[in-house]
Design brief:
Number of domains: 2
Strand content: 5-15%
Order of helices and strands: HEHHEHEHEHEHEHEEHHHEHEEEH
CATH class of the largest domain: Alpha Beta
Structural class: alpha/beta
Strand order of the largest sheet: 2-8-7-6-5-3-4
Number of strands: 12
CATH architecture of the largest domain: 3-Layer(aba) Sandwich
CATH superfamily of the largest domain: Type I PLP-dependent aspartate aminotransferase-like (Major domain)
CATH topology of the largest domain: Aspartate Aminotransferase, domain 2
């Protein structure tokens, strides 16, 4: 039956983060004690008022199809959020589509703008699924490797070096998974001017927009006049509201691009779940104190983990500016590569982490630790990892 499998899937890899999550579950089911610091699933419960809204929708029988664009009141809430956060005005009737997850929002955005043979610039290290989604759309991902030595700074010079006549789009993520960086104004200005000069679409994944520290502030490329009419902005509810299992996100952008996004949505998943969208309305319009509490906890986790990891001989570790990840450099510890280090840590420390190589060029020599677990889990996992690494000769 091999000849019946689509040839394009030959170059598609499994999601490294999902594969590691499966590995952690398998080890636990076999009786092995492991601590999973590989996943990006907040340990917090979804806020009660969000659950209540979805439960109320179920109780009233609100379980049928909605518009493929999403519930009008949820689109209006998203428009309010965009206006308040980024001073960007999007028409909720025509310029916002609610999706089943931010991940799907990225996918429909890429499908809407890419043709076979197009190229997409992706600053790396970057989330594991961007490149694979580009390939599924029949296009070619082109990595723009960033350097740990200068803090993974993005510049126009780096983008120009990878530009070809086939370049169609740029995928951005800030705050950034896996490095924890928040893009600065000069970097976003470079992106805005570069994309305008070369008539490129910008797909901006802003799923971690609420999780920033130390006075850093998230900015969207859509805030820049050169980018407003060429940016598709993606975000969602999983990280800020601990709604990973709900699968709810959205994409916004100029009407012409959003018409194409809507076509992909209509002919794939159709729409996000009706009662789930009611929960999304409650999340955006209700009490925001649970979000602040989660961010405060993540701040504590990154401070504690950063201090502990920097005490390990040979490890270099930047303090994350956002997200709930930390990305230590383990290249001086003697492992052949980051995958070998990750495998060794499972066996020797009982800790599951993600190898930096999973995030593309620029990621090798690092491992990613997720700090989204409970405080007890984060401290136990980082302590066990630090102990075994400190014992290396």
């Amino acid at each position: 039956m091999e000849h019946r499998i689509a040839r394009k899937l030959a170059c598609i890899e499994r999601s490294a983060t999902m594969a590691l999550a499966d590995r952690a579950r398998s080890l636990k089911e076999s009786g092995r004690k492991v601590i999973n610091l590989a996943g990006g699933d907040p340990h917090f419960a979804t806020p009660g008022h969000v659950v209540d809204a979805a439960r109320g929708a179920l109780d009233e029988g609100f379980t049928h199809y909605t518009s493929s664009r999403g519930l009008p009141d949820l689109r209006a809430a998203v428009a309010d959020r965009l206006r308040c956060r980024s001073d960007v005005t999007r028409d909720p009737e025509h310029e916002i589509v609610i999706t089943p997850s931010a991940k799907h929002a990225v996918f429909v955005s890429l499908m809407a703008v890419l043709d076979p043979g197009d190229e997409v610039l992706i600053p790396t290290p970057s989330w594991v699924s961007y490149g694979q989604m580009v390939r599924l759309a029949g296009a070619k991902p082109v990595s723009v490797p960033l350097c740990a030595d200068d803090g993974f700074v993005l510049s126009r010079e780096l983008l120009e070096a990878r530009l070809t006549r086939k370049t169609k789009a740029i995928v951005l993520n800030s705050p950034t998974n896996p490095t924890g960086r928040v893009l600065r104004a000069p970097e976003l200005r470079d992106v805005a001017e570069f994309s305008a000069d070369h008539d490129l679409v910008v797909i901006s994944d802003e799923i971690y927009e609420d999780i920033v520290f130390d006075g850093n502030r998230h900015h969207s490329p859509s805030e820049y006049p050169e980018c407003t009419e060429r940016t598709l902005t993606v975000s969602g509810f999983s990280k800020s509201y601990a709604m990973t299992g709900w699968r709810l996100g959205y994409v916004s952008g100029p009407q012409k691009l959003m018409q194409a996004v809507l076509k992909v949505q209509e002919h794939s998943v159709g729409e996000a779940g009706s009662f789930i969208q009611r929960g999304g309305v409650a999340a955006l319009t209700g009490d925001q104190s649970p979000v602040l509490h989660m961010v405060e906890q993540y701040h504590h986790h990154r401070e504690w983990a950063h201090t502990a990891l920097r005490q390990v001989p040979g490890i270099e570790c930047a303090l994350p500016e956002g997200t709930f990840y930390i990305f230590p450099d383990i290249s001086r510890l003697g492992f052949s590569d980051s995958y070998a280090c990750a495998q060794w840590l499972i066996e020797e420390a009982g800790v599951v982490v993600t190898p930096g190589s999973a995030f593309g060029p620029g990621g090798e020599g690092h491992i990613r630790l997720s700090l989204a677990a409970s405080t007890a889990t984060v401290e136990a996992g980082v302590s066990q990892l630090s102990d075994v690494l400190s014992a290396l000769d």
